[in-house]
Amino acid sequence: MLNYYTVFDNLEFGVDGNRVILEGQVTNPELKSEAVAAVKSVPGVTDVQDNVKVLPLSNDDDRIRRAAYRAIYGDPQLTKYGFQSVQSIHIVVDNGRITLEGNVDSQADKNVAGIRANSVPGAFSSKNNLLVRGER
C-alpha cells in the first residue's frame, strides 16, 4: 500500500523480464518515490524505469479535482465506486485538463463518468480512458 495514493493519482506498470516500467501521474512527489521504492523491493526486480510524472502545483487544478470528484462520485449511478478502499475511477487533472483512468462495470457507467467530467466548470477538456471490466 502506498501512503499518499489517492483518487487523483494514477499509477500503471509493465514488466519486461526483470525490469518494471512505472507510468502514470501523481500529485505528490513523495508518492512517486514511494512507488519506485516499493517496486524495487519486489523479489526478482532488477531494474525500475521511472516514467511517472509529478503533476504541477496549481490551485486551479485542485479546484477542478474537487469539482470533478463531486460530479463523478456524487452521481447516483457512480456512487458505488466511491465506497471501495481504492476507488476505481481516477481523476487526473493536469493544467486544467481532466483524464479519467481506471475501470468500471459497464459502458453506461463509463459514459456517465465522461459526461460528468465534461460538465466540470473551468476544465479545458476531458478525456475518458476508463475501461469496462471484461471488455478488451
Quick summary:
This protein has about 140 residues and is an alpha/beta fold. The chain has 3 helices and 7 strands; from the N terminus they run ββαβαββαββ. The strands form 2 sheets. Strands 4, 5, 6 and 7 form a 4-stranded mixed beta sheet that branches.
On the 0-100 scale, what is the average pLDDT? Answer: 95
Helical stretch tally: 3
Share of β-strand residues: 25-35%
* CATH architectural group of the largest domain: 2-Layer Sandwich
- Counting structural domains, the number is 2
Uncertain stretches of 5 or more adjacent residues = none
Q: In whole angstroms, how far apart are the ends?
A: 27 Å
Q: List the quaternary state of the chains.
A: single chain
Describe the structure.
Strands 4, 5, 6 and 7 form a four-stranded mixed β-sheet that branches. The protein has a three-stranded mixed β-sheet with strand order 1-2-3, covered by helices on one side. It folds into two domains: 10-54, GMP Synthetase, Chain A, domain 3, CATH 3.30.300.130; 59-132, Histidine-containing Protein, Chain: A (2-Layer Sandwich). The protein is globular and about 45 Å long. The chain is 29% helix and 32% strand. The chain has 136 residues and is an alpha/beta fold. The two termini are 27 Å apart. It has three helices and seven strands. It has helices spanning 29-40, 59-73, 107-118, and strands at residues 10-16, 19-26, 47-54, 89-94, 97-104, 125-128, 131-132. Strand 1 and strand 2 (19-26) form a beta hairpin.
